[in-house]
Amino acid sequence: MTVLVNGAAGGVGHFAVQLAKWKGARVIAVASGAHESFLRELGADEFIDYTRSRPEEAARDVDLVLDTVGGRDSSRFLRSLKRSGALFPVFFGEYDPDDAARLGVTISGTQVRSNGPQLATLGHLLDEQVRPRGPQPAYRVGAGTVRVGIDSTFPLSEARAAHERAARGHIQGKIVLTVA
Ligand SMILES: NC(=O)c1ccc[n+]([C@@H]2O[C@H](COP(=O)([O-])OP(=O)(O)OC[C@H]3O[C@@H](n4cnc5c(N)ncnc54)[C@H](OP(=O)(O)O)[C@@H]3O)[C@@H](O)[C@H]2O)c1
Predict the structure, then answer these.
(1) Is 55:81 a contact under the CB 8 Å cutoff?
(2) Does 112 contact ligand 1 (Cβ within 6 A)?
(3) Is the full-model pTM beyond 0.90?
């Protein structure tokens, strides 16, 4: 299966890349160029820099698009999918159901929710290496199959600065708030 993750370097995207690899998919990561080595080390097979080329034209016959960016132009990824493929918007997008029906693809989304058994599986993937991996660069923590990219760390008392960091965009992994 080929999975394309749009917004692949972000908090949601970098986990999606790793979970798709864990499931055995070929992964195409879409992000700005500064994130290429980060995403390749997390297992991305292909990298598309959206500031240099249009990912919806560079990627074809994809089984699943996970779009963490969304927005007004989000339906452009419909044309990257093969018939019977699926688009999973993580953020809100605008989609025409007639387009999806004509192309033979499905669009479905969900909101984050707590699920004990799934969290237990994720905890296991964070704790343990389920398949061999190379050395880990300093910007990740954990030795597991799924690792956490740390964009930046702030004490809780500087939560405002953390929000300001988030507002500047181009996040790589997660922002961490530490509690004394
Ligand atoms: N459905 C749910 O339950 C759920 C759960 C969590 C989050 N969300 C939503 O999902 C979205 C993503 O969350 P997040 O925590 O992953 O955000 P994030 O950490 O800010 O990551 C967003 C990523 O998108 C990249 N990006 C920005 N513009 C892009 C573009 N045009 N094409 C490709 N990549 C682009 C950014 O870096 P570069 O531009 O440098 O590549 C960044 O790495 C948010 O809107 C959030 O509200 C939904």
Answers:
(1) no
(2) yes
(3) yes
